[in-house]
Predict the 3D structure of the following.
Amino acid sequence: QVQLVESGGGLVQPGGSLRLSCVASGVGSSVSITRMGWYRVPPGEQRELVAHISNSGSIDYADSVKGRFTISGDNANNAVYLQMDDLKPEDTAIYFCTMGIGTPGIYEYEHWGQGTQVTVSS
């Protein structure tokens, strides 16, 4: 019932910028978004953390994106964003958003979007 949809991916030259959006639908009023994050899967590689916001509000970034990417959340609108600046070819990947949704202190189910392609190439 809950669906996460990413948008904002595309083809960009090195040094360019993209802003990814992820909006969740079907989130009932009786549940909460406990955490939000972005992961990516580079071609032929395993999934890796890009950025994450915990339920306490703390933010973590992968070392490879620190200083270039910024994650922000909008719980009121069930959305999470990823501003990506100074993109590099190694940032090429399918980007997935994730949200923990449930009843605080009771349970949490992790939802994933279908992914959006980001290609950084000259």
